[in-house]
Amino acid sequence: MTTTLFHGAPATCSLDALTLHAGGRADGRVLCSDLSLQFAPGERWVVLGPNGAGKSTLIAALAGLSAPHAGAVHIDGVPIARARAQALAQRRSWCPQFWLDPFAAAAWETVACAIEATHPELSADDTQRAAREWLAQFDMGVLADNDVRALSGGERQRVALATAFAQRAPLVLLDEPTAHLDWAHQVLLRDVLFDWSAAGGTIVTAVHDINLAWTIATHALLFNGRGRVRWGTREDILTAELLSNAYDIDISVRNEDGARWFRVELGAAENRR
Amino acid sequence: MRLSAPPLARASMVAALCVPAAMLIALTSGTSGWGWPQSDILWLLRFPRAMAAFGVGAALALGGAVIQLVTRNPLGEPHVLGITGGASVGALAALMLLPMGTRFAAEGGAILGAMLAMTLVFTLSWRALGRGLSPVTQPGTVTVLLIGMMLSAASSALVAILLAIASEQQLRGLLFWLLGDLNGASLWWPVWVAAIVALLMVLPRAHELDWLARGDAWAWTLGVPVAQRRRHALAAASLAIGLAVATAGAVGFVGLVAPHVVRLCGLRSARLLMPFSALFGGAFLVVADTVARTVVAPSQLPVGVVSACVGVPLFVWLLLRQRSAR
């Protein structure tokens, strides 16, 4: 592994009176309105909320992929709409929820794309070596030569994560990175995220597993699915009251040595609506 | 399934041997058997025809490779964008409207028709092409392909109309053009120029086409101006395809299969895929055309028929070999 995890100074990312509509349409459902906050270096944010509440839309807006209905996203103080795509590639990486693999490609070749994009000065051999190192980091070393189309869901997910981090941009935006990961690899991802933020990197990730969210996050942003958003430290946001309200089911919290455990009474009559 | 590293050295060697070999076969075989021909036959007949065959094959294969990459569709081929249809309409219209015997009427008309068809495809799919960025909307690549197919359908209708209203005298010329073989290829170098220019247009940014094939939004986050790059690549492809169709008519198959053959040989990245597809397509069509003009001598087959007859078994064999290796 190289000594510095990412390139350049840590990135600051802030939302300025951001309003997002579902599907990016003016007549779409309001996902959040007038949202202003800052994702600071060293922070790990989880984005939570029910299906369709706006998690992916927010992540895409942070990446600069979709224009917000109102307001702006700033990275390093520059409005993202006015930044050049090439400059942005050095400052933030985006790991999408779905991947397209229309043609055969080895796993390392996919990771190499991201390295080539941000480090065009590297030789082909160095690029390949770096790609294989990142794959090994995500426990994909032995599968580096395999066809991405023949990988399992979790393996493909780890290739995607290796690709996102290989870009070596300080701000990493992940959309459901743990959807296909088993527990061992969720722990592996957590360790990578901790190292990243310890070095001054910023993480914003959408997740569904609230227990995992508690484990990996320093801060949380919670969509309630009705256009309201709460954010703050994980202790303030990951509470029984706020979560139950957002997900519209009863979520109970157990405190244990400063850690919180969340569970849903799936069998309870009041939860079956 | 493990994928081997690109066999670049071996592929270069095979190409360096096979391309001259194909040309040699084309130059030495004729209706009267094998052997080195008289200088007139060589320089006035066989050499221009072999060169035209190579240029057309290379241009179509390159166009197919580019279209497959930027539409993210393994079934992409040169004729899917409607350029061939437009070129056919243009060539027929030029043959009908211009006085008989006008030099390069068909070629000029075909180029004009191809450009018109391309402009239509671009205009109609403009919004869809820029829309792929947002992960919440459908990518525009499907729209491009559908519009291309609609244009092809409209072109066949127009061709039918032109054939219906053509005079008895004109009909003969029109049908010869539509059958599209290399017999009438009068100029070999324009398609070479087009193929080389197209290759020079796409090669410097070839790696970005690889990223594009993995998703518009992701490619954009890597710094690729997605819509611009796709338009640029499609323009290069249409230049090559337009000139190829103007030279030899709608030669099928080579544009679809050449990129797949090259990919199955392990040359997966766009920067290798595109030049080697062109080399393979060119050499392949030279051999196919040689067979087309000798196998049923003294009459000739359209080269497209031969390219399918030779290419289908070759492709199926490569495909099945790949399967069993898994």
What does this structure look like?
The complex is a heterodimer of chains A (273) and B (326). In chain A, helix 3 runs parallel beside helix 5. The termini of chain A are far apart. In chain A, 33% of the residues lie in helices and 25% in strands. A six-stranded mixed β-sheet of chain A has the order 6-7-8-3-9-10, with helices on both faces. The model of chain A has no long low-confidence stretch (mean pLDDT 91). By secondary structure, chain A is α/β, with parallel strands linked by helices. Chain A has helices at residues 55-63, 85-91, 107-118, 124-137, 153-166, 183-198, 210-216, 234-237, 240-247, and strands at 13-21, 30-39, 44-48, 70-75, 78-79, 92-95, 171-175, 202-206, 219-223, 229-233, 251-256, 259-264. Chain A has nine helices and twelve strands. With 326 residues, chain B is mainly alpha-helical. Chain B has one domain (51-324): ABC transporter involved in vitamin B12 uptake, BtuC, CATH 1.10.3470.10. Chain B contains 13 helices and two strands; from the N terminus they run αββαααααααααααα. Chain B has helices at residues 8-28, 39-71, 83-97, 105-131, 141-165, 168-179, 189-202, 206-213, 216-221, 226-248, 254-264, 270-294, 303-325, and strands at residues 29-30, 33-34. Chain B has a two-stranded antiparallel sheet with strand order 1-2. The longest helix of chain B has 33 residues, at 39-71. The N and C termini of chain B lie close together (6 Å). The model of chain B has no long low-confidence stretch (mean pLDDT 85). At the A-B interface, helix 1, helix 2, strand 6 and helix 3 of A face helix 8 and helix 9 of B.
